[in-house]
Amino acid sequence: MDNLTQALLRIGQATRTIALDEARAVGLTPVQAQTLLFVSNTKSFATTVRQLAATLGATNASTVGVIDALVAKGLLRREPGEHDRRITLLRLTAEGQQACKRLGQWGHQLQAALQQLTAEQRQALESGLGAVIWSLRTSGHLTVAEPCRGCIYFAEDAAPGQPEPHYCRLIQQFLPEEEARKDCPEHTPPDQAGTPHRLARDDVDPDVRNG
Fold it and tell me: Which of 55, 118, 136, 188 sits CB 3.0–4.6 Å from 142 for a disulfide?
């Protein structure tokens, strides 16, 4: 194992420790905190069990267990999809929204460590890690979601002056500004056109399909 790989593994170990400490501060486990932040920051049509499992790097079965625990805590609720009621979407309750506010500084200890780098070091690190992230993403080991802007399917101000001025060509829906700022797992920059899309495939949850 080379020094760089070893350094990344050590950072991963430190990140897990930091996540545990920060989640405990608000009475949650790290995966529960990640789940609430996923629902808060992801576009409303993409907060499915399957997408959450991909984001967490977990199985559907273990992800359902995390969801059940948060529902029992009164932080999360399920609702059927607007256009396909076989799909289960996740929504924050009022208590869940408050919990997300308490998680507002999630990752601040790691951010503080990064602030010790010079601007040049940060730029080089960002560029290098970006390439690593893209490699892990294309190999299926990492799910990365980003907001609409910069995506080939996003048409900004397609309907100026309307409550939902923006348009997504992938899902063929108009979007309000608040929704456009949320993360989408199907964000596709111009240089990645042609990548298969998860939302374009059957996203019905297995328990709903078989029920």
Answer: 136
